[in-house]
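Appendix B. Extra example for self-study. Work through it before the problem class; the solution is given directly after the inputs so you can check yourself.
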Amino acid sequence: EVQLLESGGGLVQPGGSLRLSCAASGFILGSYAMSWVRQAPGKGLEWVSVISGSGGSAYYGESVKGRFTISRDNSKNTLYLQMNSLRVEDTAVYYCAKIPPVTAWYFDYWGQGTLVTVSS
Amino acid sequence: SYELTQPPSVSVSPGQTASITCSGEKLGDKYGYWYQQKPGQSPVLVIYEDNKRPSGIPERFSGSNSGNTATLTISGTQAMDEAEYYCQAWDSSTVTFGGGTKLSVL
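Solution. Structure tokens for the complete assembly:
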């Protein structure tokens, strides 16, 4: 059974940093591209980032480009999101999501999410 | 940037057919995807590649995509289908979600 378990969320001040983790089980992480998607309180879904299965390629949404870095450690079955220069508008539940082994990016499994609150 | 537009809300009576639209420029040239999200839960994929259902998704969920509009159709809508629905497209290394549609089963 595919399981994705996010951790690392919490309260951080504007301008601060936070690293999220997503522990994967039930499949071989290195065989799949992975993504982070966020959802601000009471709002819709917003794509954040995608990383290839090997970790050699990464892509970002415009709102986080230059501030967030996605990475992975396939030996630990773990996906990461390093978030720097955090802003109030980055407050959201952050989901990690698995991408099927196809050329298109969509998400067949989602974690339960971890809440990041950026506030002074 | 690419945009997808959904109606904020759709209402349907139990047992009737619900249709939720998603509009975007030349969306029919891309694949459309749909997710269901119930309050306090993570999104669940219900339709991929315009009209395919993942394992475990009931047959009453179907999809289509042509021109500028993708449509999610729920036939014989049940109370358990009340949720927020999001469409999604992918192109040029970017993922776009629609704003979401609240489906009320009244």
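Self-check: Chain B has a mean pLDDT of 97. If your reasoning did not lead you there, revisit section 3.
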